[in-house]
Amino acid sequence: MRGKVGGLILFWVGSALMIILGWLYSWWMVPNIAEVGTSAMSGFIGILWGMAVPLGGVIAVLGAAAYTRENRARVIITPIAVFVLLFLLGLLPSFNSVPSPIFGIGGGLIAIAFMGIVWNWIKTRSILSRSERLGADLKILGYLCFLITAWFLCGLLGAPTFILRPELNSQYSSIESAVKMAVYNVFIPFVVGWILVSVGHLISGKSTRAK
Hints:
The protein is mainly alpha-helical. About 80% of the residues lie in helices and about 0% in strands.
């Protein structure tokens, strides 16, 4: 019982960190950074804001692991490892030019991973109940949105808008085109994807609990 209470507390602390500091506080912080620069991120609150969502997500998952008491070691180690990896990647030196092979390899891995998800959906959908199929269908549509987001994100960072290479952006594209792609082709499908996956998980979870 004590572990479940502690797990719920951690979950809500992590969620509050993401929503209050990561989301709501950003409505003030982002315009402030645009006005005075990264000096707005100095101090404890500024530093904490910079890591609010990743850190809050890790805390929320740790709380969920403590609440379920199932495979806690694996569930606890994984988000911590991801957080440490992201932190270490942030310490790496900057690139002087766009590392095209990294984007190319990463894009291929994303496509292969998506194919694996769809193949698993094909093989398992027929054995699911009606409500479970609905949950699975919504999740696959969400993953499709993530794939679309990844594709247009490549187009935003590289060809054809070259937002990471201002000299090519001014020659072959424009900031206006980049903003349009970022809003309509990247951000909106990304948000829709998260909503579909979330609703799909809720439906699948409800169907599992009903058995």
